[in-house]
Amino acid sequence: MRVSLRTAALLAALILSPLAAHAAPAQSLAGDWRNAKNTVHIRAYPCGDAVCGTVIWASPSAEAKARDKGADKLAGTQIFREFRPTGDGGYTGKLFVPTVGRTFSGRLKITPDDKLVGKGCVIGGLFCKSTTWVRL
């Protein structure tokens, strides 16, 4: 039985269309995000072959808290550094936490409901903390 190229393409489209309908849309880290308390806003953006994120706004209380821990100013501080895709929809890189003045290995992942979860760990993953960001 010979099948024309057009018929083969039509069959392939019919077979694959249900799979495509359930595929998740590609989500990008790029954009503006706020933390759950709405005290810090960040902008995630491409930087070289990676993704970075910088604080674009902070409430007076967030600025004071960071200042108490030694940060001159929270707004303008790059907190996501060198985040690269991991292949499973997540990103790994470095998270700077201004309130402790340290940088940790971290992971970023966008949830199906378009929230950004940042997770930083120390001592080989023994102690971890997560922060959820909502897209602005």
From TrEMBL:
<feature type="signal peptide">
    <location>
        <begin position="1"/>
        <end position="23"/>
    </location>
</feature>
<feature type="domain" description="DUF2147">
    <location>
        <begin position="31"/>
        <end position="135"/>
    </location>
</feature>
<keyword id="KW-0732">Signal</keyword>
<dbReference type="InterPro" id="IPR019223">
    <property type="entry name" value="DUF2147"/>
</dbReference>
<protein>
    <submittedName>
        <fullName>DUF2147 domain-containing protein</fullName>
    </submittedName>
</protein>
<dbReference type="Pfam" id="PF09917">
    <property type="entry name" value="DUF2147"/>
</dbReference>
